[in-house]
């Protein structure tokens, strides 16, 4: 019976480790998405209206493009 209890504790610990790992991965992913959004937004926002028009974009497109870039991560 002692072996069973130890095994149950190990299994519960593995579940906790997986949960913590998932939380950390979620946080890492969130930061990566925030960085991608900020980088894309800042780079496009730094362009002039003429430069944006040259690549077929308007200033109003910047937010949507930054969001979609971040969502792809």
Could you give the topology of this structure?
Blueprint: H1 2-45, H2 49-54, H3 62-71
**Main sheet characteristics:** none
Order of helices and strands: HHH
User: Which structural class fits the helix and strand makeup?
Assistant: mainly alpha
Envelope shape: rod-shaped
Describe this structure in words.
The chain has one domain (2-71). Helix 1 (2-45) packs antiparallel against helix 3. The protein has helices at 2-45, 49-54, 62-71. The longest helix is centred in the N-terminal third of the chain and has 44 residues, at 2-45. The radius of gyration is 22 Å and the shape is rod-shaped. The termini are far apart. Helix content is 82%, strand content 0%. The chain contains three helices and no strands. It is mainly alpha-helical.
